[in-house]
Amino acid sequence: MAAIHTLFSMQSSGNCYKPRLLMHELGIPFRIVEVEKGSGKTTAQDFLKLNPNAQVPLLVLPDGQPLAESNAMLLHLAEGSPLIPADAYDRALCYQWLFFEQYSHEPVIAVARNWLFLTPGGRVTMAHRIEEWQVKGHKALGVMEARLSVADFLAGPAFSIADIALYAYTHVAEDADYDLALYPGISAWLARIAARPRHVGIDWRPLA
């Protein structure tokens, strides 16, 4: 049997969804090792040898080398494919959106979704943060809307890993009380991505 990629993944996580979506898009064979939240798997010594940061996603390449951080996985897996723009400026814009996603988007929208949708009792526990999350999350969505109201995709004229990175948590932003109906450009972009022939949803996994 040919060696394949192994992804340590928590299925509800948008960060874990990114490499799954990309590998399915590119037809890269992979298997999933499910890591349940609070299971202690990521703090076990065998896992820490692969990722001392004790987090998923973690991708183990066919040669056994480990790779952490979801956007690093996107860059590695998409190397040489059309999902990284060939034009130097469009490629720089792609990287710009990857940094934006991890600095301005994910720390607000993903965190809000975790507490308000995934964590039992989280809405009560974090009630004091909801207004802040709304303000900062809508600011990030507004930045995306400014681009997507005049363009089909985020970086250059074609679908790229920038779109995958930001699709992951944007398409479930309503789980965290963000009204995406306020953003027609984003809504149309989400529909374009969902209509791609090799698109899969956040809960999809390969057959064992």
In short:
The chain is of the alpha+beta class. It has eight helices and four strands; from the N terminus they run βαβαββαααααα.
SSE arrangement:
Elements: E1 5-9, H1 14-26, E2 30-34, H2 45-48, E3 58-60, E4 66-68, H3 70-77, H4 88-118, H5 122-125, H6 130-148, H7 161-170, H8 184-194
Parallel strand pairs: 1-2
Antiparallel strand pairs: 1-3, 3-4
Helix pairs in contact: 1-3, 1-7, 4-6, 4-7, 6-8
Pfam families: GST_C, GST_N_2
Domain GST C-terminal: 87-208
GO molecular function, one term: transferase activity
Structural overview:
By secondary structure, this protein is an alpha+beta fold. It has two domains: 5-78, 3-Layer(aba) Sandwich (Glutaredoxin), CATH 3.40.30; 88-195, Glutathione S-transferase Yfyf (Class Pi), Chain A, domain 2 (Up-down Bundle), CATH 1.20.1050.10. The chain has eight helices and four strands, in the order E-H-E-H-E-E-H-H-H-H-H-H. A four-stranded mixed β-sheet has the order 2-1-3-4, covered by helices on one side. Helix 1 crosses helix 7, helix 4 packs antiparallel against helix 6 and helix 4 runs parallel beside helix 7 (161-170). It is globular, with a radius of gyration of 17 Å. The mean pLDDT is 95. Residues 3-85 form the GST N-terminal domain.
